[in-house]
Amino acid sequence: MSVDRTRLHIALQRSGRLSDLSRDLLREAGLRIESGKNSLTARAANFPADLMFVRDDDIPTFVSDGVCEFGIVGQNVLEEFALGQPEPTFEVVAELGFGKCSLRIAAPEQLHYEGTQALVGQRIATSYPRLLQRFLDEQGIQAEVVQMKGAVELAPRLEIATYVCDLVSTGATLEANGLRVVEKVLDSQAVLIRSLKAVDEGRANIAEQLLSRIEGVLATKESKYIMLNASSEALKRITDLLPGAEAPTIVPLHGRPGHFAVHAVCQESVFWETLQKLKAAGASAILVVPIEKMML
Questions:
Q1: For a disulfide at 83, which of 126, 130, 143, 293, Cβ 3.0-4.6 Å?
Q2: Ramachandran region of residue 287, left (φ > 0), alpha (ψ -120 to 50) or beta?
Q3: Is 295 inside any structural domain?
Q4: Contact 145/133 with Cβ under 8 angstroms?
Q5: Span 150-155, mean pLDDT?
Q6: Distance in angstroms (rounded) separating the CA atoms of residues 144 and 164
Q7: What is the pLDDT of residue 36?
Q8: 184 and 39 share a domain?
């Protein structure tokens, strides 16, 4: 497969929910993605970027080797890969807030568990041997790590291992196999990573444009635009209540001396309780609207 070095390349998971959410993020950043869902590659029709759809555990390799300048991958996969590298080969440029799960140690429901010392000398099955070994080392636990490629939750039933260390989202799979969570190894979410390999000036400029767009998308997720009216006496109380607003715009109201219009981007959630506090502080005509796009 030839690679066009005049365009950016972004590695995404081939299929699944993380793949869908990654595509959604890029679409929100303005990329009009062409080609079918089952293709190995896709092109952005309106931006110099190509997408490569690969196995999730291949994404760090593609980015580290510079085949792709960017990748979207789960922290669990990324940290497992990084623990096997002698030096950093990528950087995490953004936490994306989706694909959240956690890597947990689970035990059979009937097994009595009294803390990490219960793991001493035990066999623990996992698809994340480096992350599990790091956890055991940090806890000072000597245990045997049994690497499995899949179906980890079956290990106790098959007498391969007493415990398992697996990804947990809802916990339904563990429960269905008679397992319960006893320890947390890692919290994970999707992250945007960038290769540390040098690129030419043209692609570097394109990369900064893409990052700026993605940062804008992430900034709008919780941000809201608030507009309200206030008297000069109430301004200080009101601006102190605006959640996450650094520098509200304050404009005199025409025909109403001593009264002002206050506009602010609030970078935190705005709840009804906040609106009630603003009203009690002297605000009127309060309007909260979502932000479609933001360039930071």
A1: 130
A2: beta
A3: no
A4: yes
A5: 91
A6: 11
A7: 58
A8: no
From 73, 62, 155, select the one nearest 108 (Cα to Cα): 155
Domain boundaries, position 81: 8-98+190-220
User: CA-CA distance, 197 to 188, in Å (whole number)?
Assistant: 25
Q: Is the pLDDT of residue 269 over 90?
A: no
* CA-to-CA separations, 50 to 6, 28, 58, 116, in angstroms, rounded: 10, 16, 17, 46
Q: Are strands 8-13 and 70-74 parallel, antiparallel or unpaired?
A: parallel
Place of tokens 């080797």: 65
Extended strands (E) in 148-196: 163-168, 179-188, 190-195
Q: Is residue 1 part of a domain?
A: no
Looking from the CA of 245 toward its CB, the CA atoms found within 13 Å total 22
Largest CA distance in the chain: 81
Mind giving me the DSSP string for 101-157? Answer: EEEEEEEETTS---SGGGGTT-EEEES-HHHHHHHHHHHT---EEEE-SS-GGGTTT
Question: CATH number for the domain including 281?
Answer: 3.30.70.120
Query: Do 194 and 170 sit in the same domain of this protein?
Result: no
